Structures are given as structure tokens and as C-alpha cells.
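RETRY 2/3 - previous attempt timed out on the joint model. Re-submitting the same 358-residue input unchanged.
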Amino acid sequence: MSPTPPTSPEPESEPDLRHHGDAEVRADGAGLVDLAVNVRTGTPPQWLRDHLAATLADLAAYPDGTAARAAVAARHARPADEVLLTAGAAEAFVLLARVLAPRHVAVVHPQFTEPEAALRDAGHDVRRVLLSPADGFRLTDGAVPESADLVVLGNPTNPTSVLHPAAVVAALARPGRTLVIDEAFMDTVPGETESLASARDLPGRVVVLRSLTKTWGLAGLRIGYVLGPAPLIAALAAAQPLWPVSTPALAAAEACSTPAALAEAEQAARELALWRDHLLKGLAAFPDVRVHGDPAASFVLIELPGADAVRARLREHGFAVRRGDTFPGLGPDWLRIAVRDEPTTDRLLAALGAVLAR
Ligand SMILES: Cc1ncc(COP(=O)(O)O)c(C=O)c1O
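RETRY 2/3 succeeded.
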């Protein structure tokens, strides 16, 4: 637990950090086309379903993560003691918040809100670094205070879809600083070009979080992992409950680390890039819609005056998109849209056209 005092309660105008895209497709959103959650459609693939189903025969035994840990370590060219398997990246945020004792926490926003929520829950005083749409939500020189000894950043970033160059992210590493990079969406980038998952020689402590949720359609299984220096990995492991990752989840981690699985993910990332271009071209036809920066992940962030009302009307047309106002640094004029195949995107664009013409 952090030695810093708990922060004061958030003022009422604060965004709801605990809102996530799945809320937009639950209950009254159940029949809508889901453009709010960025899990790849048509997943998990049949071979993975079959593989997971086969593990049911082993459920009488307690899980043994040895093989999965070794497979993930080999995938990222690291020793096994630099890998911690977790119940999704979400568990890793909580472990880090509970184990680390930073004096100055800088969370780079807009980004996924759970890291900040977990840090606050653990009593840390969080300072936000707000990147600007005017800069295409890119990191600018000096944006992260020199005094920050814990820095949390997403790459590529949810919800902006910005992919920061690996060199720019690596330049944030310092002796005495823990740099946490949430790479939950890195496998949506062909070649994972800007990943620091295998970087072991940067100054300070560099921690990379990965998730199998998005590309493999395993949100309900809960499997992700942490890559980082062995002593920190050991400290995080000591904070986990016993047997935190189930046998099917361990089987998924192992199966999704094979060369064949990586080739499949790469192919999906390439196809996604074509679909994203199609969406961006369609959005460019609407003069009021602005896309800042250069989207690189499985979603696109748009700025549109009155976006909150547009979102409500899109639901009447059968589409759920993600509200933007719960992300620090954004507001009611922002929406996040998942990249889907071209026919689905065409239907969305037609609905958007109808809504904006009203
Ligand atoms: C950027 C980002 N990181 C991490 C997560 C959590 O992923 P997991 O399902 O592995 O807990 C999400 C989930 O939406 C996310 O958007």
C-alpha cells in the first residue's frame, strides 16, 4: 500500500472512471450492433474454442502455469521469471497499484480508466497528464513531469487509437521510475512495431501489460500477463491470490503464443487496417466529424458537436457506440467507434448520415 494519503473524493463533474463499453451493450443495448466493445468479431476462433473445451477434462486438478509462462516468455524473448500471468490486464492494474509505493504518479490521458481507478482505490494520489487533440493526442516533449516515479501510458492508446513510437515511449524510462505501458491493443498493430514487450535494457523499471481479450475474443475467460523485471514480477506474484488463473485461461495463453497463432493475429491486424481505412474514408465525408491523429488500433475516436445526442439516435438505428465523456480529457462531443468489416461499417455510416441529416 502507498504511504501517500488517500485522495479526496472525486468532484461530481469528474468522469465516471468505472464506465466501460460493455455497459453500452448490456440490458437495453442487448440487440444492438456492438461498436462499443473492441473485441474482434467472430472470436474466439473454432480451433481455440475446441482447445479450451478439451481442458474441461483437467478441471479436477489445480492449475499449473509453468508451461503457459514458458510459452509467453518465449514469445517475447524473455526469461520465464519476467512473466506473470494474470486474470486479464485488469488484474495487473490492481496488483501494481497495491504493490508499488510511488511518490508521484502520472497517468497519461485520455486512456483506459481502470489504471487510474485502481491506483486511486489503493490510496495513491494520481496526477493526470492530458494529451491534446491539437497535438493529435501524441506525447509532447516535457508532457510527463520529470518528478514522476510511476508513469502509466497506453500504447496503442484506448480511446485515441494513437500508436506512440517505441522510441518516444522508451525515452520516458528513467532510473528510479516505473514505466507501465498498457499494450492491451498492441496485437491489433501489424508487426507490433512499437511494442516494448521484449525491451529489457531500458533504465529504471519498464513494465508491459498484455491482454488476450481483444484479438482472441476471450473477455469472459480473463487472461493477460505482465512483463517486467524479475524482482517486481515476484512482488506482484506474491500479491496474487493462490491459483489466480484458471486451467482454460492458462491453455489459452499457451495456445495464443504459438507461431501459428501469432500468424493468425498478424493476418487479423492487416485485415483490420483495411477495414479501418474504409471507416476513416466514410467518416471523412461528414464535415462535422473530426478524427485527430492517426488511428492505429481496432477503434477510432471522433469529435462531433452534440456527439452524446448522436449516440442516443444511433441506438435507435440499432448501433451502440462508446460514449467519450467518461474519459478524462474528452467530453460529450466525443465518441469511440469499433472498426468492423466493411458491410457493417457501411450500415453504420448510413445510419450516421440519417442521424446527422435530421
Ligand atoms: C486499454 C485497455 N487495457 C486493458 C484492458 C483490460 O483488458 P483485460 O480484459 O485483459 O482485463 C482494456 C479493456 O477494455 C483496455 O481497453
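The chain is about 35% helix and 15% strand. Closing ticket.
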